[in-house]
Amino acid sequence: MANNQFAKNTLSIMLVRIISVSATLFLTYFLSHKLSVAQFGTITSFWVQTVMAVTIAGLGLPVFVFTYSRQKLGQLLAALPQAYKLYFGGWIGVASAVFAGIQLSSNTLFAPDIASFFCLALFFAVTTMGLLLDALSIIYGYYQRLIFAAVCYNAWYIILYVLYYRGTIGPDLLLAALTGNAILKVILLSRQVFKAHQPAGDISFLSLKSHWLSTGLYDVSQNVVKYLDKFILSFLVGKEALAAYTNLTTEIPVFALVFASVKSSTSIYLAHSARNERHIGRYLRAAGRLLGYFIFPSVFFIGMFAPDIITMVFSEKYLGGIALFLVALLKLPNYNFMFSAVLQYYEKGHIVHKGVWVDTLVSLVLVFPLYYCMGLSGIVLSMVISTYCQNFYYGNALRKIMNTSWTAILPLRSWMIQAGVFAGLSAGLWYILNQTDLHYMARLSIAFAVMAPLSLWGIYRTYRQIKRF
Question: ∠ CA(341), CA(344), CA(346), 5° rounding?
């Protein structure tokens, strides 16, 4: 029963995020091919700054709530003092005003008037609340409503940008329509979430605050570190350079989708079904094998066929940044690690927070010498290395907490086999297909058709093993 619920949770969360990722991928493909690099860079600048600001304004709450079961979260919300809610609302109001002011002073898309200011502030506020409502809907199991809201929101999101490209609507009308779209999503989700009532529980708000400071702020810190380079560059470099850097170094959405879905389901699974350290270790190894069957074939496929993939997704205008793309690809194996979710289960938020500092400090130490040697690729490489250091810190801490070995929590032998098999297969396919005169789409299709079934077979086989837990 627990494993069936895990599968339902994972698939439902993944479907919601697939809808969002598909919309983002379509628009990235459409706009990067149709617009000039500078025009696309202007849009990219707005969304990079929005993502960073929304992350900070959310205070990590969309991730923090996943550390509690449905019943305990309901009791917590029922017992939450009104003052806390007012403080959060006031914080969102201030953050929205600051965001709107920054946009009007730095972004040339919108008219610098009071109407644009209020529209930007409202857009920011409802977008922030929408992320929190997404998390609450997942925890309460309102998947049908969440999927419906995701379909409506993302379909309208695509339509609006297509109309903008065609010149049917201008930037200010686009902003107003995006704001209305976000409001409708909040209305759809809030009606369902606010119907869920639980009696107030006996909650230690001192313990709650301590846990949030460690766990919730970890998410803020982690995302700030992840987007900080792009956020700073959005103010410092030209729109062309920003578009190339952002497109070619942003984590490929499908990997973030799979990882976030499995991580969210892991948090829910541990909160309801974890029995002991041995059981958790078995789960981590199985989850690692499952992710490995997805990550390793993807990394080697994308790496070997990088020029073809850049041409397909972004157009040949971005081929000059292939070095950025390949360096950023080195970060993907980090998605195999589920350490932070288990540390949150053990309520070791202080360890999670220290890991953010490890990531930040290592990146700061390396970024300037690597930038001097490698240019923009050095910035990316510093973040790749710092992320591996962070995961090593998390894994070592978890190993000590569980009083076990690395091999008890990581499927190291399976990963070596997976990496070897898929590296050899992708290299062989690349060599054979590059001896032909096939169109790049044909090369990609053939390579994908060979590698995907093997990857899916491994995922299915591992999933069946998880079900037998």
Answer: 115
